[in-house]
Write a structure and sequence with these properties.
The complex is a heterodimer.
Chain A lengths: L7 H27 L2 H22 L5 H19 L1 H9 L16 H15 L6 H11 L5 H7 L4 H17 L11 H22 L10 H16 L4 H14 L25 H21 L6 H14 L8 H14 L3 H15 L1 H10 L11 H12 L3 H14 L3 H13 L3
Helix pairs in contact in A: 1-2, 1-3, 1-5, 2-3, 6-8, 6-9, 7-8, 9-10, 10-11, 11-12, 11-13, 12-13, 13-14, 14-15, 15-16, 16-17, 17-18, 18-19
Chain B lengths: L2 E8 L11 H16 L3 E6 L7 E6 L2 E6 L8 E9 L3 H13 L7 E7 L4
Antiparallel strand pairs in B: 1-5, 1-6, 2-5, 3-4
The chains are: A mainly alpha, B alpha+beta.
Amino acid sequence: MTQQPTSDTATEQTVETVFRLESPRIIAAVTRTVRDIGIAEELAQDALVAALEQWPRDGVPDNPGAWLMATAKHRAIDLIRRRETYARKLAEIGRTLETTAPPVEPSAPDDIDDDLLRLVFTACHPVLSAEARIALTLRLLGGLTTPEIARAFLVPEATIAQRIVRAKRTLATKNVAFEVPYGPQREARLGSVLEVIYLIFNEGYAATAGDDWLRPALCEDALRLARVLSGLMPKEPEVHALTALLELQASRSAARTGPSGEPVLLKDQNRSRWNRMLIARGFTALARAEAAGATTTTSGPGPYALQATIAACHAHAHSYDATDWPRIAALYTALAARSPSPVVELNRAVAVSMSDGPAPALRIIDALATEPSLRDYHLLPSVRADLLQRLGRTKEARTEFLRAAELTQNERERHLLRMRAKECAP
Amino acid sequence: MPRYLSLVQIDEATVPAEGPSPELMQRMGELIEEITKAGVMLDTAGLTPTAQGTRVHWQDGNISVTDGPFTESKEVVGGYAIMQCKDKAEALEWTKRFLKVHEEHWTVTCEVREIAEG
């Protein structure tokens, strides 16, 4: 019993949609057979081509995902059987090859989850650069096309295409095992996965609505990846914590831009525009992180848990002034102890300015003045300008606002900073 | 990535007296887990029958209250799902899969609507 296609275009649309939904799982399952992500991706594409040929003719199968999976697996087995040269090559690089092809059976959900998790860890392997990990993850797990990734990251398509090709080659030549790491390696490897998702989210978060919509959409791609990972690794507190952090950050997205697309800072945001459902999901994910952490970690909350707790403090507050700033300052102090970074110090300064006033905050900021990694970071002069303004040192504040305006990459933000500089006009 | 509300509308006359079969509930549970694990399902729930529901109506400046069941409506909302998808085609694909877990004696319509943002 199959659905009669209404038209060829409708069927093609179905094929493409189903393929996009299923391709991470198909690539993951096929990689387990052929042990090469690049080849697995080609075989998945072959299944897509087969569907585009057959479904318009025979109708869409009842279980289209299973059809694609079975087709790709059959092709994988055919390939292994037929291509002896391939088998020799595999043998040369020291991998064992099953001489008898495994029967194609419907995979148990657990198997599919294991395969997907292997794919996640392989795509985010530290042998690859952060850029390569991001591109590969978005392509294999996020379901983005190469042109979409290129547009989202504002680089030429050829750059991304090459990055992905090279990443696959590196994984093959370095003989990266298709596995989920256990033991002492596990934490570092998981850190690499979480970092990839976090970087993807931040890339989208830094782009405001004025940019190409594909850039802000990266936030949702990252959020989806985090949600998927939470389902695959339910015992890992930091995975739930990252999901919580991203849910809570995303809950504010509608309030982050004004009517003409200008950025609206946290303290000026209309909190009724925060998405309550995402906030509730963030709280739930944070509770899961805490529950998982209580049973697994002895070292206290991890960096993502601390950041998610800070985001939760903001979400709980009905106004900027009503925020529990002393608690946020303490959380940033804990975060600085766990994973110190100039950006954490900068945020700590903002929290301190709210809980203890601008003077102690300015001391933290001024200690960052010579920090090379913040030299071109517009938020440093921007925050410093704000503190100077609050201290009544308007002349210095004006200079700092203008410096921040020079440094920002975002047109709308530049405008906002120049407006602030005007307020400080002598 | 837009969010979609799927309003699951059922013909209450086609619902078995003893409610959904255990097999249906199991299939549906597995599918909902799959949609959740795909990072797509944000929230979903079924509703109690309209016999326990009430309609509060505003017309000509007056409130009127009607208790269920609402026999004059062929199909009534029996549940909902909120999904975050790349596009409508993806939301419709999951919706078709949701409908297919029902036995043939069910009559169900899912009205898929994009949630307005901003």
